[in-house]
Amino acid sequence: MNFRKAVLVPVLAASLFATAQGALATTFKMALGDAAGGTQWELGQKFKTLFEQKTGGKHKVDLFPNGQLGDEQNTVNNAALGTLDFSVLAINNVTPFSPTVGVLTLPYVIQSAEDARELTLGEIGKELTANTVRDAGVRIVGWAYSGFRVLTNSKRPVTSVGDLKGMVIRVPKNEIMIATYQAWGINPTPMAWTETFTALQQRVVDGQDNPYITVSAMKFNEVQKYVTNIRYIFSLEPLIVSEQVFQDQKPEVQKAILEAGREATEYSFQYLQQTEDRIRKELAAKGMQISDPANGEKEWMEKATAQVWPKFYASIGGKDKLDKVLKTLGR
Length: 331
Known about the structure:
Elements: H1 3-24, E1 26-32, H2 39-54, E2 59-64, H3 72-81, E3 86-88, H4 113-121, H5 123-136, E4 138-148, E5 150-153, E6 170-171, H6 175-183, E7 189-190, H7 196-201, E8 207-210, H8 212-217, E9 226-228, E10 234-242, H9 243-247, H10 251-285, E11 289-291, H11 298-308, H12 313-316, H13 319-328
Parallel strand pairs: 1-2, 1-3, 6-7, 9-11
Antiparallel strand pairs: 3-10, 4-10, 5-8, 5-9
């Protein structure tokens, strides 16, 4: 072997080894609808850390917050096609693709964080996860618990259903949420999440509803003055993975995804318990005026449950599905 060959052979071998090693490493993309600092970000960051640890650094996750990879419903489509790996999004944006998930967004079904945890981690959650794989081509592997969606607006304090009259309220493009506001006597404005801050800022819409943590992360306090502590929907934000991407992974990587998702879910629940009250106080200190509904929200609840629940029995899989959920919660 001449000198040139003697040099090239080990160099080529080293290069091939490095290429092979690089081929083993995969970087997954995760879309987040919210800005950094909210519960979506916290869940995503925790999942990233855990997953990278469990795969010994061979696999990594890059987070793209604030709708950089498209609005939340688009990320479901892209994940179903296998062109996006992961997404964390509000559950109401999964419902159009897998309607039975809507049982978790019917008004006043979930009445505490403990209710939310019981449903998502128990048999109901397993059934809904199987349904999303079947219906939407995505798999729920984790949950962010974001708290109740409180109502914010820029016009006046709201303590009764009647106070909503004349207001323009933004809601997601979700039939259940639209029907709930209609039950309260107004026609809300469906609007993409990525357009919401600008619409509030320009007074195209007067208000919106989201958890305190999201209100803070999105800096809605800069364009909204009043908060009403309605508790009609507990905001759940599932972490989904493309089923196509999931099935393409080796068993040990699938196991790491599922384990990291479970552990990140537990972290999210604890994060909510530790931060929600502090963030509410911070928003009040920044000038937001916070009110409770009159009469313990009785009127809001009665109108919503009487008018909205029956409209969606068929889409959630029948009234018996709702009865099963309520029985699980001891109601």
